[in-house]
Amino acid sequence: MVKYSTVKKRLKIEVERTTANGLAHLTHYFQNHVNGVSQHYIKPATEYLSQLSDELQLVEEPQMQQLLPMKFDVPFPPPTEYDFTFLDLFAGIGGFRIPLQELKGKCVFTSEFNYQAQRTYEHNFGEVPFGDITKLDLNIVPKHDILTAGFPCQPFSISGKMKGFEDTRGTLIYNVFQIIEKRQPKVVFLENVKHLIHHDKGNTLKTIVKDLEALDYKVSWKLLNASDFGVPQNRERVIIIGHKDIKFDFTKLKTKPKTNLKRILDKDVKFEYLDEPYTILDDYRIQESGLIFIGHRNKSIRIAGVRPGTEHLSRVHKQPNRIYSSEGLHPALPSQESSGRFWIYDEGKVRKLTINECYKIMGFPEKFIKNSSLSDSYRQIGNSVCVPMIKEIATQIKAQLL
Ligand SMILES: C[S@@+](CC[C@H](N)C(=O)[O-])C[C@H]1O[C@@H](n2cnc3c(N)ncnc32)[C@H](O)[C@@H]1O
Hints:
Distance between the termini: 50 Å
Number of helices: 11
CATH class of the largest domain: Alpha Beta
Helix content: 25-40%
Bound molecules: S-adenosylmethionine
Strand content: 15-25%
Low-confidence stretches: 301-317
Order of helices and strands: HHHHEHEHEHEHEEEEEEEEEHHH
């Protein structure tokens, strides 16, 4: 008989080093063992366990949980009763999953290939995402009601010769289309950066819409700003929604008045103040967006031209030396801490936004467990979605489309 302590040790090693899908199968099995979805995961989960120990078998959840050196008392456990199921693709750290679970959604499959993002996800949801979506066996993806994906925007040009979603072959949205074709979710909920609208003179967005229509979805899309959903951040994102019979009506979304950064700032913590020369302008004003450009760092102010690799970013991102006032909004958080953004003018001083404040201006709940590496935490929140905006859209999806 293998001792539990031996098995725990082996499993711990595996948790720490694996990038394979064994733990994804196992944790997906655990979170779905009462709803029939576990049949998708049971075989590989069993095989994975038998690799770790000859004498281990899948047993019901309570015993198994004691066996695993994983956190199951997570801040965001799946709802015990649920109204709909969903997929969390390109899951990052679960910016879709938090609000959809709050609306009584049950995640039945998740994919994310970045190791550090997988760890953050596991600590918060008790589930390890499957890895590279391009290498997935589609048979393990269960049927579901809503497919969510904040997919990376990749260039593709349209040959115009092929039919359906073949036009996007070789890109990540193609892999999403394959899942949609196979599992026919009721609703497709996609998110992307604003630049998608202009990418390849609008052809990229047009192709995505056309391909979803070819898969029999009625599609609508809109550019939305997180600042209209109660968070002090000017973050514009394209939202694309498809449904088998009904066009999603964006006009029903409930927006909120713009708020300011000051409202959410940390108190009584040690701030990092800017210790290099900067200029605060005498004459400043609130921009239409709600940003208050109040000054700039004096060092290496960018002159004309676009820095390589930033062509697709908004104007604000290309001006990393700008300082914005806490009386207004913050510009969209970037995914690079080194981008030079994050400096705010508050209480007569210039200081860096804390990592905690970054998670607050994306609307993440306080109980969210951040990655232990600060640079990974900055990257992960900059890549994520604004939770209250996703929640309002999902609320309307539930009301209009399910
Ligand atoms: C824009 S982020 C989405 C973040 C997510 N919506 C969230 O709330 O955190 C895109 C994510 O896709 C992941 N990704 C990129 N290529 C992938 C692939 N081939 N398979 C799985 N995940 C991938 C990246 O690691 C990144 O975390």
